[in-house]
């Protein structure tokens, strides 16, 4: 069983930055691919970024490429999402997810564990 707890959300002006963190429990965290997803009001949850078990491969949604960076620290059982040049359309609840495979995927249903989410609001 894996538990995920997100933190770092908040209110920021357009053009600003935030760093989201995801703390994981479980002995096998280092063998899991991890992802970040987001869900805006009235919209479906969508893929944001993902990272392989060792951080060697990363993937991003086109909408955040060049602005967001996903990283992980297996020793600390942490995953991060650095968000720069934030836009109002980035406003959403951001979720951390774990996939019990080594390789990441942008497909939501392929993830096995989910956090409760953290709210990010970007004002114009």
Describe what is shown at a glance.
This protein is mainly β and 124 residues long. It has strands at residues 4-7, 10-13, 18-24, 33-39, 46-51, 58-60, 68-73, 78-83, 92-99, 113-114, 118-123.
How far is the N terminus from the C terminus? Answer: 40 Å
Order of helices and strands: EEEEEEEEEEE
Gyration radius over CA: 13 Å
Low-confidence stretches: none
| Total count of helical runs of at least 4 residues | 0
Compute the number of strand runs.
Answer: 11
Helix content: under 10%
Shape label? globular
Overall pLDDT level:
96
What does this structure look like?
This protein has 124 residues and is mostly beta strands. It contains no helices and eleven strands. The strands form two sheets. Strands 2, 4, 5, 6, 9, 10 and 11 form a seven-stranded mixed sheet that branches. It has a four-stranded antiparallel sheet with strand order 1-3-8-7, with no helix packed on it. The protein is globular and about 40 Å long. The mean pLDDT is 96.
């Amino acid at each position: 069983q894996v538990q995920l707890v997100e933190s770092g959300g908040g209110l920021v002006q357009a053009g600003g930055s935030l760093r989201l963190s995801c703390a994981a429990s479980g002995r096998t965290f280092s063998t899991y691919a991890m992802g970040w997803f987001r869900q805006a009001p009235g919209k479906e949850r969508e893929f944001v970024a993902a990272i392989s078990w060792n951080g060697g491969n990363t993937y991003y949604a086109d909408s955040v490429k060049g602005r967001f960076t996903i990283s992980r620290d297996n020793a600390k059982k942490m995953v991060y999402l650095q968000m720069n040049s934030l836009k109002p359309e980035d406003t959403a609840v951001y979720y951390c997810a774990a996939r019990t495979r080594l390789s990441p995927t942008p497909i939501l249903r392929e993830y096995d564990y989910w956090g409760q989410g953290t709210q990010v609001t970007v004002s114009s």
